[in-house]
Amino acid sequence: MHLFGLTNEQFEVFVLMFLRVSSMLFLFPIFSSPQIPRQLRLGLGGLLTFVIFRSVPAPHLDGGAFELLVGGAAQVLLGVIVGFVASLIFTGIQFAGELIDLQIGFAIANVINPQTQQNITIIGELQLALATLIFLATNSHYLLIEGIAGSFKLLPLPYINLDPSVAGNLSLFFAQSFLIVFKIAAPVVVALFLTNVSLAFMARVAPQMNVFVIGLPIQVAVGLTMMAISLPLLASIGPEIFQGVALQMDTVMRGLRPAPP
Fold first, then answer.
1. Are 79 and 246 spatial neighbours (Cβ–Cβ below 8 Å)?
2. Residues near 117 by beta carbon (within 8 Å), at least 6 away in sequence
3. Greatest Cα-to-Cα distance within the chain, rounded to the nearest angstrom
4. Most buried pick, 1, 85, 178, 201, via CB within 10 A?
5. Distance (Å, whole) CA 24 – CA 45
6. What is the model's pTM?
7. 58 against 111, higher pLDDT
8. How far is the C-alpha of 14 from the C-alpha of 18, rounded, in Å?
9. What are the residues whose beta carbons fall under 8 Å from the beta carbon of 128, sequence distance 6 or more?
């Protein structure tokens, strides 16, 4: 039987590849946005699978439908793990903006994030939008596509190995995303902390002064000024951060590679 010009074995390989590619695209930054319809993401997954299909060595599947089902579940799990790793950076950048909002006093005002359809703070959305633009401007999305194509050489079909080192690597990458949060938010948060300390001293020196009335405008002015000054920091460390995403994906996939027979 030939379907779309493919033999049964080739069609099974195509299905496994499609499951891996589509699972990654549904969680990768930019591609996972709800603004991109599911049909388009599935179509893009099918297109990428078609492009790299001939370059992937065909595995030997002799276990019938059960082996195909287990292999498909393994590809979906692989896509979810790698996609989660790739999305950690953007989550950290958004959290850095939310920390700044909390210190300035903007946390009371929320907006809808078009990518996650959730309420986030104003500066959190601004930081996420800037990170997205830098991500696209530096062609870092090509790294994700290259990672998808290279995954089939690094981690051949159809199975994966859940090595204990994978959990350790995920914890490490999660901690590294928090380090990025501090790098981005530290200038503004430290400046606002010093501002609050100064206001506290003023309240002690001049108790008749209403610190709550004058404190909020001062906090907003200091916060926005420091954010404008430190904004180029995101542009300078952005490419390096996105390069690190590719390395993290590579590390995770090496940990999932089955041991040689």
1. no
2. 34
3. 89
4. 85
5. 9
6. 0.75
7. 58
8. 6
9. 90, 93, 94, 97, 113, 115, 120
φ and ψ of 162, to 5 deg: -80, 80
pLDDT digits (tens, 9 = 90+) for 132-141: 888 888 887 7
- What DSSP designation does 27 have? T
At 107, is the pLDDT very low, low, confident or very high (cuts 50, 70, 90)?
low
- On the CB side of 178, CA atoms within 13 Å amount to 5
Taken in order 183, 186, 187, 188, the sign of the CA dihedral is positive
**Quick one: tokens of 3?**
């379907």
64-104 and 164-205 helices, crossing angle to 10°: 10
The closest of 134, 78, 127 to 258, measured between CA atoms, is 78
Asked whether the predicted pLDDT for residue 1 surpasses 50, the reply is no
